[in-house]
Amino acid sequence: MSQTQAVSAAAAGTITLGGDLTVNRLGYGAMRITGKGIWGPPDDKPAALATLRRAVELGVNFIDTADSYGPNVSEELIAEALYPYPPDLVIATKAGFQRPGPDQWVVDGRPKHLRDSCERSLRRLRLERIDLFQLHRIDENVPLEDQIGTLNDLQREGKIRHIGLSEVSVEQIEDVRRLATVATVQNRYNLGDRESENVLEYCMRENLGFIPWFPLAVGDLAKAGGPIAQVAQRLGALPSQVALAWLLAKSPVMLPIPGTSKVSHLKENTAAAALKLDESAMQELG
């Protein structure tokens, strides 16, 4: 990877979500710009705002957030940093959690909660329509028809453009698709955690966008002498960049969303868009 090459998320190529939303295939996850425990404001608000602005300058035009991040804080910071938004910027948000305290997450898929969450996200983000509205979790205590029916209603009302799902199985995706059109699936997936491999394969077959969250969790694989470290050394890159490049090479429906609250880390992550892994590197990483 050339050190003089301009850093841009555009180097990752593009993906079209829902048939009409084309974005660069390396996005930004806005969970970590909140306080400890994903609760309250960040320790360094100016740094968080600067990171958001720099992300857009570096070609990121897909930002993933949720009303539960803070709660509310992430969405508020996005609007403060970036409104009025560039015309090509897609902001995806989520609903389906209550937050009673730091590091506490309670699933809530009741129709009233989902509708109220959407209305409030629209106000916080200063949007007339949310391009991608994702159900953060399917609530097993609420009929699926009621949860998805609410999203369908919001879509018909013009408040959301596309529906996405998060942390779902193939069976759940198929159940939802009998009730609504699904544009994306967001599951935990990275080099060290491939539990959702079958979900990725399904998304590839069905041409659904796959948004891997926690994309940089590589654990022991990145230790000295490990496969990631070896590939990184050979390519003159960082292990984190190799992890992102692996995701991008894995599938054309992949849309990684690495998150950070520091401009320096953001630039390192974005540089991974231009890192190409050859066949031997992909085999080495498995």
Kindly describe this structure.
This protein has 286 residues and is α/β, with parallel strands linked by helices. The chain has a single domain, classed as NADP-dependent oxidoreductase domain (TIM Barrel, Alpha-Beta Barrel). 37% of the residues lie in helices and 17% in strands. The chain has ten helices and eleven strands. It has a seven-stranded parallel β-sheet, with helices on one face. It has a two-stranded antiparallel sheet with strand order 1-2. The chain has a two-stranded antiparallel sheet with strand order 6-7. α1 (45-57) packs across α2 (73-82), α1 runs parallel beside α9 (263-271) and α3 (111-125) runs parallel beside α4 (144-156). The longest helix is centred in the middle third of the chain and has 15 residues, at 111-125. The mean pLDDT is 95.
Please render the helix and strand layout as text.
Layout: E1 14-17, E2 21-24, E3 28-29, H1 45-57, E4 62-64, H2 73-82, E5 90-95, E6 97-98, E7 106-107, H3 111-125, E8 130-135, H4 144-156, E9 160-166, H5 170-177, E10 182-188, H6 197-206, E11 209-213, H7 227-235, H8 239-250, H9 263-271, H10 279-285
